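Q: Is it fine to ask for two folds in a single conversation?
A: Yes, each is treated on its own. Send the first.
Q: Here.
A: Result:
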Amino acid sequence: MRPDRMTEADEGRTSPDYDHLIDTVADACAGDDPTAVARLCPSTTSAAAE
């Protein structure tokens, strides 16, 4: 990620899709479910299981 991307988000200069992505990742990280982040990257989870 570009270092200035969060600044752009804070200033409202990113797309709604990017904002949704950041909110989704933040919610997964803040929750009590340790598998929530892994479910965001299904290809990573599949590779780890092999």
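Q: Second one now.
A: Result:
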Amino acid sequence: MRKKKIQIGIGLLALTGLLAIGSLSVRADSATDSLYQYYRVNRTFKVWTAGIKAKHWITLPKGMIVQAVKQTQLSSNGKSMNVAEFNFRMISYATRKNKLHMKQTWRNWTDATTRTPQYLTAVKPPKVLLTDHLSASRQSGFLSNRADNRGNMVIATVDGYLEYYQKLYPTGDSNFKPQSYAKITKIRQSGNVKYFYYRHHIKGLKDQAVRKSGKYRYRLKEVNLNKKVTLQYPSVNDGLPSTYFVYTLSNQKYYVPTGEFK
């Protein structure tokens, strides 16, 4: 069993947006449980995301695929709680807005917590994803054109949308609505090359018009370079070197954290 200590002060954490007081001891019950992975909701239930002044409740319907990490949290008084923490960036803007009724005004729309992780059943990463690498990083499911996660982001969501976010982390916050997005209509993969097809151009991406009309009109080519690089940024891992996988989208380099630190 692996254990790690996290000290959390009063205030807003830059990446997670969670509010907490005192300290928590977070224990992962296995190496797998410590990773952000993919789950199917096996019964309809509610989760909460902590806003600045209030908790916002979100109903997750049975059958929905989500990205989450399961953990056991020990509070400062020694009470043990089994929880799951969600990453809603991997769910499309269309679904967040229209089905989950989340709002752009919610400060912490990206994250939520439940004390009923038994309502989640682990599944294989959906084939629609840009990367199926699992890690303890909240950035494990999407690509950035800057390894420090302060650049433009591209996300292929679990429910089948390709979304482009311009400078998702300019100040540590996340944009609720992508600058441009499209519903994925087809995926074709050969080895380390993957093609995404959709109806219209996604502004910000160098996708290619391969047909004059129809639902397969535009195509984005992704190449997994099967390569790791070690980079160092003051804002990442306390300034220590971190490793990243490297991809290209239409010949432009993008990165995703491996979750390994030097």
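Q: Anything structural to flag on that second result?
A: Two points. The CA atoms of residues 53 and 138 lie 24 Å apart. Confidence is low (pLDDT under 50) at residues 1-31.
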